[in-house]
Amino acid sequence: xxxxxxxxxxxxxxxxxxxxxxxxxxxxxxxxxxxxxxxxxxxxxxxxxxxxxxxxxxxxxxxxxxxxxxxxxxxxxxxxxxxxxxxxxxxxxxxxxxxxxxxxxxxxxxxxxxxxxxxxxxxxxxxxxxxxxxxxxxxxxxxxxxxxxxxxxxxxxxxxxxxxxxxxxxxxxxxxxxxxxxxxxxxxxxxxxxxxxxxxxxxxxxxxxxxxxxxxxxxxxxxxxxxxxxxxxxxxxxxxxxxxxxxxxxxxxxxxxxxxxxxxxxxxxxxxxxxxxxxxxxxxxxxxxxxxxxxxxxxxxxxxxxxxxxxxxxxxxxxxxxxxxxxxxxxxxxxxxxxxxxxxxxxxxxxxxxxxxxxxxxxxxxxxxxxxxxxxxxxxxxxxxxxxxxxxxxxxxxxxxxxxxxxxxxxxxxxxxxxxxxxxxxxxxxxxxxxxxxxxxxxxxx
Length: 446
Hints:
- By secondary structure, the chain is α/β, with parallel strands linked by helices.
- The protein folds into three domains: 2-47; 61-132 and 400-443, 2-Layer Sandwich (Pantoate--beta-alanine Ligase, Chain: A,domain 2); 139-396, no CATH class.
- It has helices spanning 2-8, 10-75, 427-431, and strands at 89-91, 94-104, 107-116, 119-129, 131-132, 139-141, 145-147, 152-156, 185-187, 191-192, 198-199, 203-204, 211-212, 219-220, 246-249, 259-260, 263-267, 269-272, 277-281, 284-288, 291-293, 298-302, 308-312, 316-317, 323-327, 334-338, 344-346, 349-365, 369-382, 387-391, 398-399, 405-412.
- The strands form four sheets. The protein has a 21-stranded parallel beta sheet that branches.
- A hairpin with a 2-residue loop joins strand 1 (89-91) and strand 2.
- The protein is elongated and about 120 Å long.
């Protein structure tokens, strides 16, 4: 029978059918594997595209938030710059910096660049600001301004270099070598000058008031006409920052313990011990309910990486053999605000680049102070031989605190070249930064 089946070819046909079925099964399985791989790849690609699109959207929103932060900086009389590419600010989980350009006519161009994971965005807004026409003086006193003998007030532009590095000129017929003559002083009442005072700029008493002591070697090179209206002196607005208690800085403390900043800080009491050196490093906002300095100590304000604003809400003591110095691109970056009515005696030795503002207090500036900026107070008393070099960048129009900024134009702009070609690289890696080392955007106004 088997021979008969083989003779008829029945066995060969059955074997062929089984072989064909096996081949078909292999083809089907292979096809399914290919399709599965394709669908898997498609799913991964779709997931990447979805995440990338989400990161792009988030980067865009962070860039828009940067524009809002720059607008707030302008309303706070800052330049509108927020952080920088070298040291961006953080916003949510993204990084952002804004570059501000004064276009004139109260218009500002704000370029905001943001990174969020793989997302990148850059936008430009041109805004129009409402500004105040209030005068800005090297010295402003609400009560009569009292100036001791041999005081020199002139001006300079720090954008052209330090005061020492800039060429000096004489203003005939006077013999002093100065940089510029915009060192205006003003009072809402009278101005009392002493022998040898040289004001290279205007001396403006308050409405209906006058200047005493003018003549001979005591002069002002500009106008001495009374103001038509008083200069307003709004109260200091102290930021709300959780208290860190009392801080004592000693000479033998580790270096890190003798530095405050960057960041926001509030101390109910800060004491700088004998021979100790304390550095305030920006960007920083520091609220001090009481400040006490000791013999031979030093206070250094470092605003090279961001502004430093100090708010003295209570007693503040600057002893005579203390040294105060500040490092800052302009006086706009360092501010000493005194919110109380307690008198302030600046007895220390100081080379101070910054502004001093005490609308409720009397400020006495000793002869050991050299100020590159301005002093404003309820009453200002300058001791003999004080030198005050007004920072002309403070003349920039101040934007009204209660005003709004109108957006004149808005557009996307190309990314900086340094960000190109790094689409999926972590932002901190792209910029060569360490996570956790950057200030919040709201603390990086310049």
